[in-house]
Structure prediction request, 602 residues.
Amino acid sequence: MSRLPKAAVRDEALRLRAMFEATGAAPVDPAILQPAATLLDLYGEDIRARAYVTADPLRGEQMLRPDFTVPVVQEHMDGGAEPARYTYSGEVFRKQENDETRPNEYFQVGLELFDGRDPEAADADVFASIAEALQGLPVKPATGDIGITSATLAGLTLSDDRRAALMRHLWRPRRFRALIDQFAGRKPVPTHRKAVLAIMAQGGDPMQGSGIRIGLRSETEIRARLDRLAKDAVQPPLPASEVDLLDQVTGLKDVAPVALERLRDVAVDLPTLSPAVARLERRFEAMAARGIDVDSLPFETSFGRTTLEYYDGFVFGFSAIGRPDLPAVAIGGRYDALTKVLGRGAEIPAVGGIIRAEVALHLREKEGAA
Amino acid sequence: MTLKLGVPSKGRLMEKTFDWFGARGLNLQRTGSDREYAGVVTGIDGVDLVLLSASEIPRELAAGRVHLGVTGSDLVRDTLAAWDDQVKEIDLMGFGHADLVIAVPQVWVDVDCVADLDSAAAAFRACHGFRLRIATKYHRLVREFLKREGVADYQLVDSQGATEGTVKNGTAEAIADITSTGDTLRANHLKVLSDGVIHRSQATLFKSRKADWVGRDRETLSVLMDRLGVLT
Prediction:
């Protein structure tokens, strides 16, 4: 995609923001420079590869905002009243390590809702507002729900430790799969672990003769993990039938009504899934009430599981039809867990999404010319 | 125009590089006093010797200021984004071997592999309130490795030297550093993870994809490659 004039993109961004304002959203305008520590703690090292970090002599490491979500959540937590509805438009900055042709600064227009009264209605609201803003453009929607996978895990024969390990790696499919194989007994126990477990089984102490203790990780922490390993070693394997069930759920990809039906079937064997399926159904109903054609709406359980780490419930995206070379026109989702981390335990139900103004304008101009 | 060949300016890496070219009939030598960074290539026409710090050679190759360069494969991969688009590996030279590895305290008897490190990192973060720190100067290579392996709850802290000491000094919980024999790691009460080798590095002859390869340089290159017995 050739870059469009910045003034035209800014106008498009403001036009889109005005559409969100017309839905009752209050405009906010977070700073471009954000304290790096918060973002690093939240996103981990990956963000360092993607965001520009610079140093301020007094404020320490600063980051050119890689997105708006975190500053908007912080602003809201510092004094916003609920329910709240915000919109913004402005540039975000992302390093491009592998593809020089991808822009490293571009306009995002966003809509964020903090409203715990009816989460599914809020999900549908954000999706429909973005769909309306993109009306007339050759885009196709995608939807998913991370909550379906976590609800499935909740019903599997797993110890709390094992479940927590899987939940932690929901967004890293490769590690997730390795853990499933390990818990299902499909991978041999590593030699080293076998040896440590054997010492403990004979009443010995694996830490004996292990050398001097250095570093912050204490002996108590090491012993606590050894205990967990010993407990884990006597866990029953995850039954093959349950692995199949999990694969069925995570591999599900169909139009909304069919997907819903399939998930209902699975929920018969897996009652923990029922509340999540009920939420999905309510969301589809709320979307239909907003004029979305749910009968043809694609649903994919694992949509967004590799790229959108902080989303933990509903996720969605819009992409240009027949243009896999373009980045997504819009993405969004629910991120209750992120507000929990930022709020030091205080969780605010939150859902939002962004439009890439330049991609939208590019498609609009192509449509106009056609 | 002359073809610019960048080689390490001091130490064993320089000597071995000179030997390697020497064995192939190209005589590289420093000129002037032994403090002056100047050199010549004899045995072939049209090649200029540029003496550089090994750590700067990747950057000079990427900028196209040298046509060919000798440096560690680890340095190229760590310094350059999408390194393969910027330089091409011409030949592995068979010396300067060193492995970039992840090492943890020997006393961590519960940790042997990368998966263990990941699990320990989760518990560490929950206990201490911050991500487990890994000291390194090879940020790109380490970050890409840990991402590929699906490790979470860690952070990299920069360490440009004496990295093996950071754990004892309390500024990191684990390290990622270059080792050839492992002696320094052991002396600092550290052990290498069984699957923690990130990259096996050695001195490598690289060709710049960004340099101007005009007229005579191409001919010089093909003569040179012929002499070195490698195909481009």
About this structure: Chain A has a mean pLDDT of 93.
